[in-house]
Amino acid sequence: MADQLIRATAAEGGIRAVGAITTRLTEEARQRHKLSYVATAALGRTMTAGLLMASSMKRAGSRVNVRVKGDGPLGGMLIDAGVDGTVRGFAEHPDVELAPNSKGKLDVGGAVGKGYLYVVRDIGYGYPYSSTVELVSGEIGEDVAHYLITSEQTPSAVVLGVFVGAQGVTAAGGLLVQVLPKAARDEALVELLESRVAALSGFTPLLQAGKTLPEIFEDILGDMSLNIFPETQILRFHCGCSFERVLGALKMLGVAELEDMIAKDDGAEATCDFCGTVYQASSAHLAQLIAELQGESSATV
Questions:
Q1: pLDDT tens, residue by residue, 1-55
Q2: C-beta of residue 136 within 8 angstroms of C-beta of residue 144
Q3: Contact assessment for residue 175 and residue 145, using Cβ atoms and an 8 Å cutoff
Q4: Rounded to two decimals, what is the model's pTM?
Q5: What is the pLDDT of residue 277?
Q6: CB–CB of 67/93 below 8 Å?
Q7: Of 30-39, 56-65, 192-201, which one has max mean pLDDT?
């Protein structure tokens, strides 16, 4: 099944729900960054969370950056997700591995540790909106829900999951359910929703059982005037880096530094943190940059 995202409302528009399947893009991230089991789970959950949060943005080109910075052995993670369904990300220490936690599951919380969650929303114009909250558990889902409740004052439940085995990622995705202001005063509705989400054994078991996103919505919200939107958005791992951008960054180093690279290394190598792509700039490329800089300098004299 292709990675995808669908949206729905319930309770006469008082509840907003978004579901995402991110199996393929999480597997691509695992391969690109050579992620360990626990790092795959952590980064996969964070990328899914970013896509779920970006889904509420309206303006084309809007993006969400989510940075997780904990004191655990995984270090930090940074993901960039867009309203267009693209996402990219990386973990600071992708090869770290831990024993399963007391529940027999991948110890994402132990890998992340204590620290902070940083969220930046860029709506395409003006100054981006940023907010920071403390990590609640390091398990990502609870931390994102805490951010949404604390910083955006929206009661939210977030369920995220990644199942990774010897053959790679076989199931990944998540669910975001939010109670909007028009229904937030209905305590019985909020309690019912909380109990149903809490009753879920996780998200990946549902996918492994063959459940589709609409079926998952039906199980949770089917008796609450559920309205599933017909549009299905395709999700994918995508990075906008390019060789041209690398040359632009190298050019900013200046003539002296570029000449030093030619003399010592006969070129330059750059690796994109987000996607792991390695770019090689030959001495000829660097010489061309030097010529351009010298030409620009002469033109301004």
A1: 799 999 999 988 889 999 999 999 999 999 999 999 999 999 999 999 999 999 9
A2: no
A3: no
A4: 0.92
A5: 95
A6: no
A7: 30-39
Is 301 a residue whose pLDDT tops 70? Answer: no
| Residue 37: other Cβ atoms inside 10 A | 20
Q: Where are the beta strands (DSSP E) in 63-222?
A: 63-70, 76-82, 86-91, 115-122, 129-134, 156-165, 168-179
Q: Where are the domains of the chain?
A: 4-237, 243-300
Strand order in the sheet with 63-70: 129-134, 115-122, 63-70, 76-82, 86-91, 236-237
Give the whole-angstrom CA distance, residue 75 versus residue 98: 13
The pLDDT assigned to 184 comes to: 67
User: Is 117 a residue whose pLDDT tops 80?
Assistant: yes
Backbone phi and psi for residue 156, each to the nearest 5 degrees, phi listed first: -140, 150
Tell me how long the chain is.
Answer: 301
Q: Do domains 4-237 and 243-300 have the same CATH topology?
A: no
Tell me whether residue 251 is exposed, middle or buried, using C-beta atoms within 10 angstroms of its C-beta: 0 to 12, 13 to 18, 19 or more.
Answer: middle
User: What are the DSSP calls for 212-281, one per residue?
Assistant: -HHHHHHHHHTTS--EE-S--EE-EE-----HHHHHHHHHTT-HHHHHHHHHHHSEEEEE-TTT--EEEE
243-300: CATH topology: CBS domain Like (3.90.1280)
Burial of 294 (0-12, 13-18, 19+ CB in 10 A): exposed
As given in the structure block, the two tokens for residue 198 are 């809490």
Looking up tokens 């030093």 gives 260
How is residue 128 annotated by DSSP? P
Beta-bridged to residue 10, according to DSSP, are 15
The CATH superfamily holding the domain 4-237 is: Hsp33 domain (3.55.30.10)
What angle do helix axes 213-221 and 187-198 make, rounded to 10 degrees? 130
Average pLDDT over residues 289-300: 82
As a whole number of Å, the CA-based R_g of the chain is 22
